[in-house]
Design brief:
With 247 residues, this protein is α+β, with helices and mostly antiparallel strands. 40% of the residues lie in helices and 20% in strands. It has a 7-stranded mixed sheet, sandwiched between helices. A hairpin with a 7-residue loop joins strand 2 (69-76) and strand 3. The longest helix has 20 residues, at 45-64.
Length: 247
């Protein structure tokens, strides 16, 4: 097995290479929900290239403006290529002091597409905002290049988060896809509930129907890891959360 090295993103040039790999990871196989956070507003090659450039700028700006954001990437003995990358959010204070806040997906132009994506993402991230209203660590996204999977890259990206959670004495939270949740279980996370977007509504427009058909089947697992990965009788997050929010 080739040696793998973990790096923290410190420059825009590194972030651009990370975004290139994230796009490749989520397009093989294609994940329709990727379009919600990384839209391509057109079908041409030029539209795709413009969308990637806009995403690189947006990702870098979000990173440098959020002190909790820590992006990491992995390279191999081969050298420069980014084999996988992940963003960890390390909150040493409550990131939701005023309770859940509605997201406005301004990376979409005003219209039905923005309305749809705003509704979808607010549903998906509501459990995190309701529940993790205290210091915690969150894996915000992770992707591994399709040609370099099953080499331990995701495990290496997870290692920073586990070390940081231990150093700070923090719980950890992930919205996991069905395929990724088995990896997270190896690091002590447990599935607490399935998050399924409810995209049906009364009198939807044709555009809403189209978007719901393309992206509306998204499902995630809300996964939680207690401090040091130790579950006790007192750690009853699922039941407390369900009772509080009547789920």
């Amino acid at each position: 097995m080739a040696l793998l090295t973990l790096h923290e993103v410190l420059s825009r040039e590194e972030m651009d290479r990370v975004v290139d790999t994230i796009w490749k990871a989520f397009h093989d196989p294609y994940r329709p929900d990727f379009q919600a956070l990384h839209p391509v507003l057109g079908a041409s090659t030029e539209d795709h290239e413009c969308a990637m450039e806009a995403d690189k700028h947006r990702t870098w700006q979000k990173h440098v403006n959020n002190p909790a954001s820590h992006w990491f990437y992995v390279t191999g003995i081969e050298g420069h290529d980014v084999l996988g990358a992940a963003e960890w959010l390390a909150y040493e204070e409550n990131p939701f002091p005023h309770g859940p806040q509605k997201m406005d997906c301004t990376w979409y132009p005003k219209g039905e597409a923005r309305n749809f994506v705003t509704e979808m993402l607010n549903q998906i991230y509501m459990p995190r905002q309701c529940w993790m209203n205290r210091p915690h660590l969150a894996l915000n996204q992770m992707g591994v290049h399709p040609k370099h999977r099953r080499r331990g890259i995701a495990t290496l990206l997870m290692s920073w988060g586990m070390k940081k959670a231990g150093e700070l004495g923090l719980e950890s939270f992930i919205e996991a896809s069905d395929s990724a949740r088995f990896l997270y279980e190896k690091f002590g996370y447990r599935s607490l509930m399935k998050i399924k977007f409810a995209g049906d509504k009364e009198y939807p427009s044709d555009e809403w129907r189209r978007l719901n058909h393309e992206m509306g089947s998204v499902e995630f697992y809300a996964m939680w890891r207690p401090v040091d990965g130790v579950f006790t009788d007192e750690a009853r997050p699922l039941w407390d959360f369900m009772q509080q929010h009547r789920l």
